[in-house]
Amino acid sequence: MIGRLNHVAIAVPDLAAAAAQYRDLLGARVGAPQDEPEHGVTVVFVELPNTKIELLHPLGPDSPIAAFLARNPAGGIHHLCYEVADIIAARDRLREQGARVLGDGEPKIGAHGKPVLFLHPKDFAGTLIELEQA
User: Fold this and answer.
1) Quick check: is 1 in a domain?
2) Interval 99-127: pLDDT, tens
3) Which site in 11, 51, 64, 85 is 20 to 30 Å from 71, CA atoms measured?
4) Known catalytic residues?
5) pTM here?
6) Are strands 5-11 and 76-84 parallel, antiparallel or unpaired?
7) CA 3 → CA 38, 77, 86, distances in Å?
């Protein structure tokens, strides 16, 4: 059901500093910051030959990333994003098999302009999973 790894998301306390590390120290191509108000984050994508790194920073105090950084002040891996061909079919199959879809279960538009859903980390070895329709 899952396709390729779309990105690894890392919550960071300082978005500009993290972007500079990837750009200046690691020589990666780094995009511009994008505010994603529906998700409560500002993101920067780091382009790699085989996938992306998504740097996440809170967009306001109610952001889920603010809570994550309160527990992990230095930042850390927040989630993995896998591509799926049909997000509704994937959601329905996962629910039938007992996996929990977060929120109201309806896809939202993600940072790439495509529908996304998140799956409960307790169902996936402690890892928050994002599914993005390819």
Assistant:
1) no
2) 999 999 999 999 999 999 999 999 999 99
3) 51
4) 130
5) 0.94
6) antiparallel
7) 25, 20, 11
